[in-house]
Amino acid sequence: MDNSALVSEADACDFLRAIEGGLVTHVGRGLYSASKSSAKEQLFWEFDKGAIPRTFAIWLEPVITIAALARLHFEYGWPAELIGTQSKKWEFDLVAYSKQDAENESIAAEIKKSAKEAEKLVEHITSLSGAGMVDVTGNAAMRNSIKKYNGLVERGAKVFWIVGPAKLNYIFNVEQLGDKRIALTPGEEGLLRYS
């Protein structure tokens, strides 16, 4: 049996902390939303509606997203009203804003359902470090990485957080170099703390 699509115990516990802590609310039809969300998270995917019994699957990425949202709040001190899922232009899966700037992300996070996907994003995003806005070209994974990178250039997040299953994470300090260029350097967990 392939266990790559199973929810890890750590992600399940953090997901439940988010639900029980009121960080996300059910808004109907299986959709969930957090305070600063630009979109609702769908947790289940239905297969053939005519099948008996009707089958469905849990969508792993939103579970990890909501689990990471719980960690931002409970472990790193972010107020619930400053965190959400999906950025306004859909580049990032999870966002945190400062009280001073509710338009541009302070933390921009991308969620990946596997370690392999997270590592590929790390490879792509670090290869772009030092560049300005980048033309969106290449295969689907590279285009997705460029979209994240351009979002960091455009709106000035201070931290880029890549989150995978079972609390896998990569933290980057985002330094604005001027001329619409940024540098990404590996950072410590302290960068995720609310101040």
Explain how this protein is built:
With 195 residues, the protein is α+β, with helices and mostly antiparallel strands. It has helices at 9-20, 60-74, 115-128, 140-155; strands at 24-28, 31-34, 41-42, 44-46, 56-58, 83-85, 94-96, 107-111, 159-163, 169-178, 181-186. The longest helix has 16 residues, at 140-155. The radius of gyration is 17 Å and the shape is globular. It starts with 8 loop residues before the first helix and ends in a 9-residue tail after the last strand. The mean pLDDT is 91.
Short description:
With 195 residues, the chain is an alpha+beta fold. 29% of the residues lie in helices and 25% in strands.
